[in-house]
Amino acid sequence: MSVESNLLVVDAGNTSIKFTALLGGQVLWVSRGDTYPVDTDFVPDVIYFASVRSKELSALLRADIQAEFPQSQWLTLKSQDYACGVRNAYVEPERLGIDRWLGVIAAHHLVKGDVVIVDAGTAIKVDVVNQAGVHLGGYIAPGLAMMEDALLSKTARIRYEAHEVVAGQGLPNSTARAVTEGCHEMALGFLERIYRRYSTFKWVVTGGDAQRLLDVLGVALECQPNLVALGAKLVGDERLRGDK
Ligand SMILES: Nc1ncnc2c1ncn2[C@@H]1O[C@H](COP(=O)(O)OP(=O)(O)O)[C@@H](O)[C@H]1O
Ligand SMILES: CC(C)(COP(=O)(O)O)[C@@H](O)C(=O)NCCC(=O)O
Ligand SMILES: [K+]
């Protein structure tokens, strides 16, 4: 792929799909939704596809995108034991979520040191990779919406309207605040425990809930909203070079 090719990265998470258009490694635009954006005349030369959805849903999404761009070269990215200078910690490397794998690789190349990656999405993922590019492993915990949904779906009386979710002072004094702030505290407690063990590492955060969650963490961290897409470019470009 030439440096000046139009690249589309499709990052299909369990909540939303992120479509990222790149030219020469620069991000032109990002669209988050369930279908490819209609308000663009961008035609990708190459498409890198990274999906954590089921095989069936991923195949349907692939068919939709390839129908839109039949001429584009297609690469489905999978987690591997080694890529772009990074060694996967998993005993079964292919079972590591591709979003985690790409985030780890991008963070290793961006930070060039010991780094903790927090990806706050449907689930909250934390991965640790050292400056030598060795992925040490990581955690998966429920995302904020998932925690709230669990409380709503498993109880009879935890019910509240969106307008009741307000920022308050002191301990929560409503169902809405008790739930939303309780879930925040759960996630922050999880992250603070990890920070106590890895406070000397650089912290890089991404994912739809990163801003909402991490502003209050009080940790020096680097926000990288396009981390997974950047990792996809590194891995996909290496694969295409290797296929030459
Ligand atoms: N436009 C949006 N659409 C969906 N979720 C969004 C949006 N903006 C922010 N979010 C937040 O991001 C979360 C999803 O984050 P994301 O990283 O896209 O998840 P995933 O990669 O698991 O699909 C949602 O739970 C929501 O709180
Ligand atoms: C943990 C995840 C579901 C997170 O996906 P997301 O929150 O982006 O929807 C995904 O990384 C995944 O399917 N992982 C496979 C299991 C593992 O990583 O061990
Ligand atoms: K994700």
From TrEMBL:
| Regions that span the bilayer | none
Carries keyword Mitochondrion? no
Presence of the UniProt keyword Mitochondrion in the record: no
**Record-annotated active site:** D99
User: What does the note accompanying the cofactor annotation read?
Assistant: A monovalent cation. Ammonium or potassium.
Cofactor(s) annotated in UniProt: NH4(+); K(+)
Q: What is its EC number?
A: 2.7.1.33
User: Which keywords belong to this entry?
Assistant: ATP-binding, Coenzyme A biosynthesis, Cytoplasm, Kinase, Metal-binding, Nucleotide-binding, Potassium, Transferase
Q: Which GO terms describe its cellular component?
A: cytoplasm
Q: Which pathway does it operate in?
A: Cofactor biosynthesis; coenzyme A biosynthesis; CoA from (R)-pantothenate: step 1/5
Q: Subcellular localization, per the record?
A: Cytoplasm
Q: Which Pfam families match?
A: Pan_kinase
- What does the entry give for GO biological process? coenzyme A biosynthetic process
The entry marks the following residues as binding ATP, namely: D11, A12, G13, N14, T15, S16, I17, K18, T122
The residues listed in the UniProt record as binding K(+), with positions renumbered to this chain, are D119
Q: Which SUPFAM superfamilies match?
A: Actin-like ATPase domain
Organism domain of life = Bacteria
**GO molecular function, one example?**
metal ion binding
Can you tell me which residues bind substrate? Y90, G97, I98, D99, R100, T175
**Which reaction equations make up its catalytic activity?**
(R)-pantothenate + ATP = (R)-4'-phosphopantothenate + ADP + H(+)
For this protein, the record's HAMAP family field holds:
Pantothen_kinase_3 (MF_01274)
**The protein's role, per its UniProt record:** Catalyzes the phosphorylation of pantothenate (Pan), the first step in CoA biosynthesis.
The record's subunit annotation is: Homodimer.
Into which family does the record put it? Belongs to the type III pantothenate kinase family.
Q: What is this protein called?
A: Type III pantothenate kinase
Organism from which the protein derives? Marinomonas arctica
